[in-house]
């Protein structure tokens, strides 16, 4: 019979949950359980994103731990986990075609520079020197040479593999529907099947579904859901190793080492979809909009064939950055949700900090600005 009690239960088997499990086990905590609601690890956003490992373009509240991950964790992660996570640190160009685009990029660069990130604004000539395959319509860009990209699924499964080897117990098809306090502290985690798990600490990192689970103990994280889509092309001749983004946020992506391009994009209508969270159907509106945007910046891809498209749900937090926080009203609960599409690249640092919160240690960077209680009524 499976053990249903632990020191720590992690709800959500995505990259953040698997990373937290690994760092807890690495620190010597063997009594850890991860509950994943779907049949497979990494089924949600962790396997359905473009793999950006970027610091540039981030809110100043999340930039410190994004920088920590890039400086201290990503460069040696493949070696540490024993799996090649396909991490490449070749830089990130965020492209602009208009004066309004460049003004936005200058603001992002100023914020980044204020926290010590090497990010600068370059003109169209410098853009073409870095990447000659881009459109002549580009008048400038932000350039962050320490940004990069990695393989999301390989990274998630690498954390899962190492956590399992260190004794963490993973349960799939274990959909959590409720939390329950005992004597004023969070203690019970209740599954759709009726099974009950118990722990002293619970990390809730289940994407948008975290909202419904937290509500069962009176906590509501202000989030909306958003269906993000991606596409992959057939193999192309090698063009570049950098990560690309655009000031207008129409698309982002990179060329993989085997030659295919991987892009994420949107049509602007994704937040209005009425699909359920268990639906993962892509839209012809999104893929066509993404293709138009991509061709406008990389004309050489105009005739490239699309091999497949896929999509997944993002948990968009009200103010654009995640909640990573203990909850005073529910002792024993730690939230890690609302990542707003920024969660993959910071996962090593987030997983480490979640383990430190469980262990009562100071986190590697100050994340007090991401506390749950930052949300106040505006009227």
From TrEMBL:
<dbReference type="InterPro" id="IPR036188">
    <property type="entry name" value="FAD/NAD-bd_sf"/>
</dbReference>
<dbReference type="InterPro" id="IPR006076">
    <property type="entry name" value="FAD-dep_OxRdtase"/>
</dbReference>
<keyword id="KW-0560">Oxidoreductase</keyword>
<dbReference type="GO" id="GO:0016491">
    <property type="term" value="F:oxidoreductase activity"/>
</dbReference>
<dbReference type="Pfam" id="PF01266">
    <property type="entry name" value="DAO"/>
</dbReference>
<protein>
    <submittedName>
        <fullName>FAD-binding oxidoreductase</fullName>
        <ecNumber>1.-.-.-</ecNumber>
    </submittedName>
</protein>
<feature type="domain" description="FAD dependent oxidoreductase">
    <location>
        <begin position="8"/>
        <end position="357"/>
    </location>
</feature>
